[in-house]
Design goal:
The chain is of the alpha+beta class. It contains 22 helices and 11 strands.
Amino acid sequence: MESFYADPCFAIALASIIAIFGWRFISTRALCGSKENRIAKAFPPGPWAWPIIGNMHLLGNLPHKVFRDLSLRYGPVVGLRLGQKPAIAVCSSTLAREVLRTYDKVFANRPDFKLYDELFYPEDSGIVMTTQSSEWRTHRKICTSLFTSKRLQEMEHSRLQEVSNLLCDIVKESAQGEKQISIRSYVSRMSARLFMRLLQSESSFHAGGEDLPDLITQVEHQASWPLIGDLIPVLSWLDFWNLKRVRAVHNRVDTVLSAIIDQRLRETAKSSIVYDDLLQSLLSRLVDPNRTPENSEVDEALTIREVKGIILDVLAGGIHTTALTIEWGVAELLKHPSCLRRLRQEMDELLGDKKARLIVEDDLQKLTYLQCVIKEISRLHPVLPMLVPRMSSEECELGGYKIPAGTLTFVNAWAIGRDDNVWEKALEFRPERFEYKNIEIKGQCYELLPFGSGRRMCAGLPVAISMVGLTLANLVHCFNIELPDGQSPETVNTEEKNGISANKAVPTVILPKPRFPMDFYRSPPAAAA
């Protein structure tokens, strides 16, 4: 995924900078590059910053890797200047703990970028990119009610059914393992169907004529980097074409969400059907548009814009991230056949003579090596390498440095997961490192932060862990996953593509050989289980 620096507007911006501000090149001393400034301001050390653009040029390609390399030179917290905004990149588990726990409230806000208002829904309408406010607390409370243990147990049949559908699709499209397939597209569709069922009790994701996984990918693409004007306000006029594209994506999203909501309102108006899903939970709080939420009699009242904002955040936060984690898992297992064999052996031993059934949720906690594999995937390939950016709301001290209010803050989960000071042979895929160790991925162990931590950690963590484990286990159990002819474990590509998520540069292609008779793959999950 390309960053916004590849846009022609950036070239125009550079030309404008040279023409308008070139005379400042010699006289301006950078915030991070000047030793005197660092001492006077006690700001963390970092690379020399160009006038006007600061260190924006460092963000053009895989910034989490760039920040990790800078931390090796400047220390665990790197000071930066992105345009006119101070920024820091935290690259150690110790300082991550300070940001996400000690100063959790201070760093709980999101950057106040125009991009987020244009792409998502403004005025704290959602969950992920909203400021820390009473609205945010209400929205998060409503959303997390969908992911309680009781609720997940009630939805287990839906998850099993979607996994079963995935297996059937793979068998059909691969001609029973004779044709190679890209696993990415299949797990993306499965993830989309599942989250649509969580949302509206239906697996269809073509409401409004849109392909939801593709649309969510476009949202992610536009959210990869802020607008130029968000970092350099004086150059905001250069965002004309970027804003046009962002608004076009938002309008497509809004059309889809409006279609979903209108359909539900029509159904409930003409029938007595009682729905028990996130959409109905949100619409039950919908206020009359002629009345303000403050004057509404509805508990935790929501406007139509808030309903759409919450839905978009749930879909954008769950569909692609779950699918991407599964794809990384398949790629690493193909690259390490001994791990794949051990995982298969663990499942066969658990099932004994009853191998011809799906792995179900009750099995997952008994599959201890599977849990180690999932943790190792999360360590090496956190889907959001630098989590979601934060912004300090007040001045604080971090690692002996003074961090001013309004500082953009990146917690580099990718760098922390590959820190040689924390992990032995950190660059190797070794699930065994988690055996007999009490290290979890639920936000309490700061050396492993795929879902973040604190009040801003991912609300969908329970369903994400469940779906990754259930899907990966059944792919390994139900297929002999092989590489296409001409490929070997050594040639499996595990490079990343630039973007807000840790996308694989090359899709993972497999030959899935079915292990069981064809009737097994056409059985409903209840019968298969």
